[in-house]
Structure formats: structure tokens, C-alpha cells
């Protein structure tokens, strides 16, 4: 990442120190995520300098009923740059997941 984004070079040493730290608390409970029942959508920014796309995709692969909108239209600032569009897309995706779940369970949505 530091080779790709030159403006992060001053942080490289600090990042390496943090990367060596091994006693972090878990960021999330994988078992809880694996038992998710509600629709989950998120925006994954292909060119995000803070969150690597592959890590987002790996996490999402473990969460049932989840979908990602993967886009290179924004970096890490989609909500700030174009919140209405980003949230509109995510709500649309959530509705589609909910409809799919309802159809599988023969539930009529309003």
C-alpha cells in the first residue's frame, strides 16, 4: 500500500509496528456474523487507501444475506461525496435481498 500511495510513506514505520502487534482484540465475532439473518449491504471502494478490497470481500463471504456494491467511483468518501446516490444504491440492494429471502420463505412483503 505504501508503494501505491506515496502520501502514506511517512506512516510506513508506524504501520509496520502496528502490524507486528499480535494481541489485538477481535474486530468482530465470526460466529455471530456467520449466523446473520438480516440483509446487509455495503459499499466497497476498489481504490480505497484505508481498506483493502480483498479484505472486505473476504469478510463479506462469511456473512449470509450480504452483498457489496464494489465501485471505483469513490475512494473512501462515498457517503460524503455523494451520500444520496450511495445510500440509494445500498437500500435498493437491501430491498432485493429482502425480496429474495421472502420469496424463498413464501412471505409476501408490502
Q: Would you mind describing this structure in some detail?
A:
The chain is mainly α and 110 residues long. The chain has one domain. It is built from four helices and two strands, in the order ααβαβα. Strand 1, helix 3 and strand 2 form a beta-alpha-beta unit. It starts with 11 loop residues before the first helix and ends in a 6-residue tail after the last helix. 6% of the residues are buried. The model has no long low-confidence stretch (mean pLDDT 90). InterPro entries: AB_hydrolase_fold (IPR029058). This is Proline iminopeptidase.
User: What's the mean pLDDT score?
Assistant: 90
Q: Classify the helix fraction into a percent range.
A: 40-55%
Largest beta sheet: strand ordering: 1-2
Quick one: biggest sheet?
A: 2 strands, parallel
Give the terminus-to-terminus CA distance: 46 Å
Tell me the β content: 5-15%
Protein name: Proline iminopeptidase
InterPro entries: AB_hydrolase_fold
